[in-house]
Amino acid sequence: MSIQNTSAIVLLSGGLDSMVVAGLAREAGYDLIALTIDYNQRHRVELDSAARIAMHLGAKEHIVLPLDLTRFGGSALTADIDVPKQGVESGAIPVTYVPARNTIFLSLCLGLAEARDARDLWIGVNALDYSGYPDCRPEFIRAFEATANLATKAGVEGDSFTIHTPLLDMSKADIAREAARLGLDAGMSWSCYDPSPDHKACGQCDACRLRAKGFADAGLLDPTIYA
Fold it and tell me: Which reaction does it catalyse (predicted)?
């Protein structure tokens, strides 16, 4: 891979997917600028995971940006709505969907990228083993990339942005295997939407179910401590 600007903006939530994406960006030869959004999410423990991952991967900059989406609400992650524990209904968008979250977050990544003269954005969206969120689909990513190159000085001047989504078509088992291949400790990452007061994963929310099944299908030990 030929890299003109060695910096890449990585959206780092602290979850398994974002950890693996950051590892893949580093493997590709990029210097990591990690962006973590503190949106006052229910599972704020993931912010600690993001900090550990950024440090472990040697990010040259890690920005934790406060953006209180509880002021908007509309999601079990940002409002007083119970996190579903019975599994996600097929074909339905669950209440853990945060309205326009990836659109908002990618916009912030794009602003940071232009400010840092970086042209590569990495995000851990997945359209195979996921909860059915509309902003994880390839159509959305293609549309946002086109928008990025229409809405920025760099894009208009022909210095285009690329959004990298290496996990898009991977199963959760594939992602768990990639973490192992990259030598990343999956225990650094956090997936649970509804942690217990003593910071254990609930084991029943959709994020926990997907994670546990992924490790099981991969034949790997899930280091998560479940309540």
Answer: 7-carboxy-7-carbaguanine + NH4(+) + 2 ATP = 7-cyano-7-carbaguanine + 2 AMP + 2 diphosphate + 2 H(+)
Give the tens place of pLDDT for each residue, 89-135: 677 899 999 999 999 999 999 999 999 999 999 999 998 877 789 99
Is residue 17 marked as binding?
Answer: yes
Structure tokens at 53: 């991952």
**Residue 109 in marked binding region:** no
Q: Is 192 assigned to a binding site?
A: yes
User: Which domains does the chain show, CATH number per domain?
Assistant: 7-218 (3.40.50.620)
